[in-house]
């Protein structure tokens, strides 16, 4: 019998890629998703890749009765908790929606895990907790900054909840993963990023501009203190990111019943926005229509990861390059636009 892992938000961008990675590693992924920021078609994409159905539930992680049902119906060994709202701008306009969903759902999950004696949890956090680090690459020991947005604050608060819960000697083994900038798609183009509406994030906006869905990319500022004036980020392939979640579940298997650890998940390299644009033009063979516009409020100038800890402790390191990820994002966009 395969080890069952519940993936909350498992129809989402990182969740769907993690479901594939877990199955490839011999686990049995179970998905719960309310499709508020994902599409049920991702489940078909996962099925096409795995040639197998996966158990899935439609619903909200804040729904304690549904969560209880899932844990009652399945012998769950561990949970990977992705389900959360993640739009930085939206969180500023609707903070209570973000606190209720992102923090509330973690509290419901921790309670149902305790009642069903499930102790392994991998939590989806974000490099946004670092704000603008004084020094790059940023290490896990780098002090977190005051959040730039309610979204970022929910990630900090959830990390604090988990630390305090572990300190209370609860029977829970936690790995928190601070993602840098996830990009790319599965090589099969069966799953990938599905931004609803106008993409906030750079790479989906780039690929949508490439296929003509968007008229022109605006580069938010070229007057930063960087090599070409545009912001620096650590863009990590979503498949590399997914594999780190498998490593994290395996890492917990022999840990004490009360345990907490956290890891940066990035490539260890920083790239500017214009470097991303140039790499996209190279892999797609298309000139991208873009202009330089004003800075976007809340953007940090530069942040990229020190990934030594994940390499040494998890035995994980990203393998794919920026161009690999942009190629996979482009192929995914072409498939979405039926232009392959
Ligand atoms: C990257 C760079 C923009 C769009 C956010 C969250 C983070 C995580 C990933 C959830 C920046 C520039 C972007 C555009 C641009 N989200 N840009 N034109 O802001 O680093 O991180 O998304 O987990 O928590 O904070 O990612 O892709 O929005 O921006 O010039 O149309 O691209 O200014 O420098 P960001 P991003």
TrEMBL record:
- Which GO biological-process labels does this protein carry? galactose metabolic process
Q: Which GO terms describe its cellular component?
A: cytosol
Q: What range does the record give for the signal peptide?
A: none
Q: Does the keyword Isomerase apply?
A: yes
> What InterPro entries would the database entry show?
NAD(P)-bd_dom (IPR016040), NAD(P)-bd_dom_sf (IPR036291), UDP_G4E (IPR005886)
Q: What is this protein called?
A: UDP-glucose 4-epimerase
NAD(P)-binding domain location, by residue?
6-328
Q: What is the lineage of its organism?
A: Bacteria, Pseudomonadati, Bacteroidota, Cytophagia, Cytophagales
The species this protein belongs to is Anditalea andensis
SUPFAM superfamilies named in the record: NAD(P)-binding Rossmann-fold domains
Its Enzyme Commission number(s) read 5.1.3.2
Query: Which PANTHER family does this UniProt record tie to the protein?
Result: UDP-GLUCOSE 4-EPIMERASE
Which UniProt keywords are present, listed alphabetically?
Answer: Carbohydrate metabolism, Isomerase, NAD
CDD domains, per the entry: UDP_G4E_1_SDR_e
Similarity comment text for this entry: Belongs to the NAD(P)-dependent epimerase/dehydratase family.
Names of the cofactor(s): NAD(+)
């Amino acid at each position: 019998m395969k080890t069952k892992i519940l993936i909350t938000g498992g129809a989402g961008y990182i969740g769907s890629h993690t479901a594939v990675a877990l199955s490839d590693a011999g686990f049995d992924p179970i998905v719960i998703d309310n499709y508020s920021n994902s599409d049920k078609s991702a489940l078909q994409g996962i099925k096409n890749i795995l040639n197998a159905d996966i158990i899935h539930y439609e619903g909200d992680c804040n729904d304690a009765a549904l969560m209880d049902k899932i844990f009652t119906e399945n012998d769950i060994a561990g949970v990977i908790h992705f389900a959360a709202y993640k739009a930085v701008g939206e969180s500023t306009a609707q903070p209570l929606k973000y606190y209720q969903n992102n923090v509330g759902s973690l509290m419901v999950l921790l309670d149902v895990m305790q009642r069903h004696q499930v102790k392994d949890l991998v939590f989806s956090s974000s490099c946004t907790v670092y704000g603008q680090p004084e020094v790059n690459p940023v290490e896990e020991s780098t002090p977190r900054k005051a959040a730039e947005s309610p979204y970022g604050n929910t990630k900090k608060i959830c990390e604090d909840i988990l630390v305090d819960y572990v300190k209370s000697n609860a029977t829970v083994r936690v790995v928190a993963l601070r993602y840098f900038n996830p990009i790319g798609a599965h090589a099969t183009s069966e799953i990938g990023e599905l931004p609803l509406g106008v993409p906030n994030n750079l790479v989906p906006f780039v690929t949508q501009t490439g296929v003509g869905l968007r008229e022109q990319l605006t580069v938010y500022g070229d007057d930063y203190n960087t090599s070409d004036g545009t912001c620096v980020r650590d863009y990590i392939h979503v498949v590399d990111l997914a594999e780190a979640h498998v490593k994290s579940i395996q890492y917990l298997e022999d840990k004490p019943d009360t345990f907490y650890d956290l890891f940066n998940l990035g490539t260890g390299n920083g790239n500017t926005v214009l470097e991303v644009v140039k790499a996209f033009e190279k892999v797609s063979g298309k000139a991208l229509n873009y202009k330089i516009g004003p800075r976007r409020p809340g953007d940090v100038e530069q942040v990229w990861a020190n990934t030594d800890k994940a390499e040494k402790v998890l035995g994980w390191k990203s393998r794919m390059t920026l161009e690999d990820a942009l190629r996979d994002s482009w192929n995914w966009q072409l498939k979405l636009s039926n232009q392959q």
